[in-house]
Amino acid sequence: MASLGVNIDHIANVRQARRTVEPDPVTYALLAELGGADGITVHLREDRRHIQDRDVELLRATVRSRLNLEMAATPEMAAIARRLRPDMVTLVPERREEVTTEGGLDVAGQLDTLRSLVGRLQDDGIGVSLFVDADTPQLEASAATGASWVELHTGSYAEAAWSAQPDELARLSEGSFIARSLGLRVNAGHGLTYQNVEPVAAIEGMEELNIGHTIVARALAVGLEQAVREMKALVQNPRRDPLFGSTRP
Ligand code: PXP
Predict the structure, then answer these.
(1) 70 flagged as catalytic
(2) Atom 5 (ligand 1): residue with closest C-alpha?
(3) Distance from the CA of 133 to the center of ligand 1, in angstroms?
(4) Which atom of ligand 1 is nearest to the CA of 70?
(5) What is d(CA 196, CA 175) in angstroms, rounded to the nearest whole number?
(6) What b-and-e string marks burial along 87-114, b requiring 16 or more CB atoms within 10 Å of the CB?
(7) C or N: which end of the chain has fewer Cβ atoms within 10 Å?
(8) What tens digit of pLDDT does each residue of 210-244 get?
(9) Would residue 50 show up in a list of annotated catalytic residues for this protein?
């Protein structure tokens, strides 16, 4: 059964729209945990467009589930992670002009740098995950860094036309199989919604899904605690084959 990591970057997006103190992501992390979040994820971006350093520091002290820090593989972020010691670091590619993380990390193209960073983080007791596309060369390179986890990028699946979704799902499923045969543990995320999450949650070996946008959007209607509860129910009890029209028992 997969667990649910809740990404609360959008709470900080609302706060930063006014550069004020509310809503505070630290408060909302607690509400997400009350709704059943198995982990809290935040992305500290180089440009600090949403999550701020102060948020990560306070979350480190208050999160009772698991804190997953998404970050670019830069010396600045490495120093922050090594000081604050989140439970997990997920290394992601970052471009200043992008609206959200686009594409997976090119692990194969920066293997030596990543191997050394992964080693330093793991020596500090931090779990490390690499956000990658479900491509064999990237998965092989991920295993070669010594990281324990990969997070499979589900963006192509999420954005695919309905008729192309089964192929994208098969790619993720195969990616999970290959990753596990390389000794990696498997998470996934990006673009998952209440409508498309179940087939991904049902992939064999899937340990955790990281989900943000759709949960915060739903929270506007029902509150964050309830929005998390609803998503957790889908993640924990996915219909095996919802793409092909089966119904929930
Ligand atoms: N996983 C990673 C690595 C991400 O960068 C993001 C977006 O910040 C997510 C998961 C969550 O994506 P979404 O907000 O589309 O659910």
Answers:
(1) yes
(2) 101
(3) 13
(4) 3
(5) 18
(6) bbbbbbbbeeeeeebebbbebbeeeeeb
(7) C
(8) 999 999 999 999 999 999 999 999 999 998 665 65
(9) no
Question: Can you tell me the distance from the alpha carbon of 16 to that of 162, in angstroms, rounded to the nearest whole number?
Answer: 35
CB atoms within 10 A of CB 16: 14
Distances (CA, A) of 190 to 13, 171, 213: 17, 15, 9
The answer to whether the beta carbons of residues 42 and 58 sit under 8 Å apart is no
CA contacts within 13 A on the Cβ side of 192: 27
Ligand 1 pocket, CB under 6 A: 7, 9, 43, 70, 90, 92, 100-101, 131, 151, 189-192, 210-214
Which three-class secondary structure string do you get for 113-167? HHHHHHHHHHHCCCEEEEEECCCHHHHHHHHHHCCCEEEEECHHHHHCCHHHHHH
The number of the ligand 1 atom at minimal distance from the alpha carbon of 5 is 10
Q: List, in order, residues 6 or more apart from 140 with CB less than 8 Å away.
A: 108, 182
Amino acid 31 reads L
Exactly one of 10, 33, 50, 70 is catalytic; name it. Answer: 70
**What would the pLDDT profile of 48-101 be if each residue is shown by its tens digit?**
999 999 999 999 999 999 999 999 999 999 999 999 999 999 999 997 667 766
The amino acid at residue 164 is A
Element (H, E) at 67: strand 67-71
Number of H helices, E strands in the chain: 11, 8
Q: Taking the C-alpha atoms of 67, 68, 71 and 76 in order, what is their torsion angle to the nearest 10 degrees?
A: 40
